[in-house]
Amino acid sequence: MDFNLSEEHEAVQFAARDFAKTELLAGVIDRDNQQKFDPALTRKMGDLGFLSMMVLPKYGGGGMDTLSYVIAMEEISKVDASASVIMSVNNSLVCWGLQAYGTDAQKEKYLTQLASGKMVGAFCLSEPEAGSDATSQQTTAVDMGDYYLLNGTKNWITNGSSSEICLVMAQTHPDKGHKGINALIVEKGAAGFSVGRKEDKMGIRASDTHTLMFSDVRVPKENRIGEDGFGFKFAMTVLNGGRIGIAAQALGIAAGAFELSLKYAQERKTFGKPISDHQAIQFKLAEMATKIEAARMLVYKAARLKDQGKDYVKAAAMAKLYASDVAMWVTTEAVQVHGGYGYVKEFHVERLMRDAKITQIYEGTSEIQKLVIARELLK
Fold it and tell me: How far apart are alpha carbons 377 and 379 in whole angstroms?
């Protein structure tokens, strides 16, 4: 085992860190307050290759490995988790899914646009009555011969209003249960496709999260991903990789809060000395750093297994479960280290604490991760 990053990985780390500090940091509090992400920043992320890191160069992507992706995710998440979730969905769920399972025509038409940053994608699985129970899809895609007629509602969709295409899971054969679900590429602007209200969220507030509605939307058969009934397997496979990205996001949120706490503890004085001289604060910093390092090892391991073509399902679930818990714990401790200053927006840690919570929920709750881990152990 080699715990050192290669020169290439260090270059990715530097580029992501530089982008986060020079482009994202200055307006992050305003974006959180206004609940709006600047489209110009999304375009810059696309121009720099952060939206298509694992896409092959022939489609316009960076052709990088998963480890490069999680390294970049961590650095960007230290500063702005709203930016990193845009990056995560486009990389892990949309681009990777299309590259792995799309047809040549689908890749040429959509993947090249997603890789260039000209398009942003959304992944539509959750519904009002189908969150953790993803088998209970009420959205239907009726086979009409050369097209599907799509009807239903999708909830909690990241990039809901800003995306140009959506990967939608819908039930075509109810009698077959989850084996009757299809994955369809649906273009924004299609007749009958509408965007509902924006969610007023606790955290990642600059990221646009919407309800999407489909009323007799005609989706050409050539926009189906994989064979008939492949949709549920597609969604679960894509989410396995997506968990690595969210684990990296959680890691970044925790690391960002720790870095702010370390700096603050060395600057803030009480009783005539920096609070970092007090053992109570030293113990907090020591435990924060240790938990973050443990989370980082789990995230890196999952990424390495994926890059090596090995089974990474358990490793990805473990990484997301632990890293998200660490993010929540570390950010709470960061607020405590900052005291009253930690409770105001100016010092950033209160936002990081709010952002941390969602990592225990989306792309599979912590409880679902435990089920996945247990099933893998009991095989």
Answer: 6
Residues ≥6 apart with Cβ < 8 Å to 156: 126, 131, 199, 209, 211, 362
- CA dist 72 and 356 (Å) reads 18
- DSSP per-residue string spanning 328-378: HHHHHHHHHHHGGGGGSGGGSHHHHHHHHHGGGTTTS-HHHHHHHHHHHHT
Taking residue 277's Cβ as centre, other Cβ atoms within 10 Å add up to 14
pLDDT at 61: 96
Q: Taking a C-beta distance cutoff of 8 angstroms, is the pair 330, 355 a contact?
A: no
Contact 315, 369 (CB under 8 A): no
Catalytic position from the list 259, 363, 367, 376: 363
Q: What is the pLDDT of residue 133?
A: 85
Catalytic site residue 350? no
Residues 279, 275: Cα–Cα separation, whole Å? 9
Burial of 237 (0-12, 13-18, 19+ CB in 10 A): middle
Contact 50, 43 (CB under 8 A): no
Q: How far is CA 123 from CA 3, 41, 46, 61, 166, in A?
A: 34, 21, 18, 19, 6
Distances from the Cα of 301 to the Cα of 89, 138, 294, 326, angstroms: 21, 36, 11, 17
Q: For each successive 10 residues of the chain (379 residues), what is the average pLDDT?
A: 94 98 98 97 95 96 97 98 97 96 97 92 93 90 97 96 97 96 97 96 97 98 97 96 97 98 97 96 98 98 97 98 98 98 97 98 96 97
| CA atoms of 289 and 284, how far apart (whole Å) | 9
- pLDDT score at 118: 87
The rounded Cα 116 to chain-centroid distance in angstroms is 19
- DSSP symbol at 226: S
Residue 350, pLDDT score: 98
Strand ranges, E, within 73-199: 121-124, 140-143, 147-158, 165-171, 181-187, 193-198
Return the CA Rg of the chain.
21
> Strands (DSSP E) along the chain, which ranges?
121-124, 140-143, 147-158, 165-171, 181-187, 193-198, 209-220, 224-225, 269-270, 273-274
pLDDT for 117 equals: 85
Q: Taking a C-beta distance cutoff of 8 angstroms, is the pair 112, 60 a contact?
A: yes
The 8-class DSSP code of residue 130 comes to: B
